[in-house]
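Person: I keep going back and forth on a fold encoding question. Show me how you would write down a chain together with its backbone fold. Please set it down just below, with no commentary around it:
Helper:
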Amino acid sequence: MAKSAWKRPGSPIGRKGPRKANPAYKRRAREPWTAADVSKLKQLAKGNTPTGVMSIKLQRPVAAIRSKAQREGISLRPVNRSPYSRRTKAAKRR
């Protein structure tokens, strides 16, 4: 008979994860956003920070960061990425 997933060696269930390794890390889900949190979100979005890193720095779920950014009108799209269909003039000449 197969072992349960949580009993398998190397199973991530119940052992790994940021909250297990570091108990001080706590997700603040469902807590109200402060003005400092919103300004930190704006600063991280301006620096093209990925949402996964934002979630660790703000200690909130990725979905909460995306929804708050949408409500505040903050774009999480990287500004340094060019559109896929655009080519430079030098690339067209070759």
About this structure: Residues 53 and 62 are 9 Å apart (CA to CA). Helices lie at 18-21, 35-46, 51-58, 62-72, 89-93. The mean pLDDT is 76. The longest helix spans residues 35-46.
